[in-house]
Amino acid sequence: MEPGSIEEVTGRLKFWCLQRDRGLARVEWDSAYARQEVVDRLKHLLSDAGIQLFEVLVPPDQPADFTVKAIFEKLRLASGSVASITGIEWAFPENGTQLDALAGLSFQREALASLPVRQIWWVPSSLTERFILGVPDLDSWFQLRLHLTEFPHRPLPMPAPHSVSPAEARLMSKRFWDRIDTVLSQGIPDEQVWRELTLPAVDALLAAGLQSEAQAILLRMPDIGPLLERQIQSLRSLESPEGRSILSLSQGLARAFGNRGDFAMARELQEEAVQAAIRLFGQNDSRTLSLMGDLAETLFAQGEVGSARDLGEKIWNQTASLFGDDHPASLASMNNLASTLRAQGEYDRARRLQEHVLEARLRTLGEDHPDTLASMNNLALTLWAQGDLEGAIRLQQRVFEVSRRSLGENHPVTLGAMSNLAEVMRERGNLNDARALHEKVLESNRKNLGEDHPATLRSMNNLALTLAAQGNREEAGRLHEQVAEVSARVLGENHPDTLTATNNLAGWLKSKGDLETSQRHAERALESSKRTFGDEHPNTLRAMNNLALILSERRDLSRARQLQESALEVSRRVLGVRHPHTLAAMSNLAGTLRAQGLTSEALRAEQEVLDMSRRVLGESNPETLTSLSNVAVLRAESGDREAAIQLLRECLAGRRTVLGDNHPNTLASAELLKRLEAQP
User: Fold this and answer.
1) To 5 degrees, how large is the angle CA 503–CA 504–CA 510?
2) pTM score
3) What is the pLDDT of residue 235?
4) Phi, psi of 147 (to 5 degrees)
5) Is the N or the C terminus of the chain less surrounded, counting Cβ atoms within 10 Å?
6) Do 91 and 101 form a contact (C-beta atoms < 8 A)?
7) Domains and CATH numbers, the chain
């Protein structure tokens, strides 16, 4: 057996446990994955010998005397068994030291050693030297000293998919969130913050399968990209460029680049990592499939939705074939594919896949697990896209309630759930409720992340849109201007969030009648989108349509029509004739044709939109009802008043059912119907 391997450490610990009825062993470790693998194997081996193994987590962030007392209480409960003790490295508050608690244990080392329990103390390599030098008397009582050096090269066996419990990982995460602001304000070097605070939390969360929470921590770091680049360079000097650690860090670096909008660099890293993983581990290894999944997400972000879908289908088929439909890897790939299908407008298939993922995760992980909450959220987004606003609100409310209970009011997952709920409520017309939720999210993000953090800017943007929907244009405008200015300064002119903010600012300026300034912002957003994403990316097509609407307001109808026809042609070719974005582009063109006095051409185009929307989106989808209203208006202008009235009655009934009596669109339909019916 290789010294320091999982097999060797497990075997020696087993032998020690079988030979003794009490005592202390110390295991130095480098990987949380490997540590938990040893614990799981040892637990199984000892159970065959009739010996129970308890996992003891040292209580976090408590005074030394409390920590020592708690450890003794837990060890007494494990009398006659084996205790695996973790958490010694991050269990102490900032106003104390690790040596305080270790010294407390050292003073009681005889009592500790006399307990009728075999104790395995797990000490991370970074703490071992301080441990030995700080409390040599305590260290001398360890009867067995081992060093676990292996990084596992295979995923942990089922049914235990994660190597660290969610509870342990979240305690590590809490330590990060509680301390990060203080640490950064003290000017501690980024490398030290990364090594001692960030990396342990991210490692534990990823080991527990809490990817979204790990990603939230990475986003909180001021500039994670250069940190990861330096880390990769240092590792390359120590091991093969295609080693496991290099691949893992390359994956994190690619995600960091993607988060700041540099999708080209993210894609380059991911493509290199995928090829390296294929050479090292093979096409069907879980690590290779994970890297392929990240690449598919980047392709999606770049607007290559078809390529993302093809790769997503391949990943899903491979994981399902290898592990079965309900394996966590299969569910993750199914979930990612469903998101791509939703983006392509294939709502029915996306919903079926998401319902399967949610049912499986509820059954295997429980309602409180972040992956289950993410599944609920994704299904809610699809229900929203299908026009089932009530169903979407019910699911989003559940996500919010569960995440608030299990993670806390200010956790990023809870705030994301609150924001999503507010967005659906705004769409539903519950503007006061939506505003209250968005204000809470913004207040929390400002307090915990700072005024310039991307999450704060996104919550500010969402609040601005809600204020505008309420008619509070001035306050909405101030927020839009702030978001656009800060996003450009912090994220860069070409970041996707900056482009969204610029487009939203242009829309607000259009709504207040400042068409000249609005056009300048819209043209700038379009040029940036072309540079960043290319001429055929969905973001670029949206920017073209936004500019066209402003040009139409300025009566530059010829240029508006030219832009809309170009956007429609690309959308049909890239996204397909059934895609919701294609239908929206066709409807916008119909509006310009109407403004040009080409009522018959406009009616034909809008009728095509309505017919396709009914087939693709359903009769009660809000977008279908908008198209129905547009056709009614065009029918009235064509002189077919009776047909227009009938269509408007259908539209009004649908909007009352879907949006409610007091939604602005419902009220507009009621007013228009009233005017038409009053005509002779």
Assistant:
1) 90
2) 0.62
3) 45
4) -130, 115
5) C
6) yes
7) 1-152 (3.40.50.300)
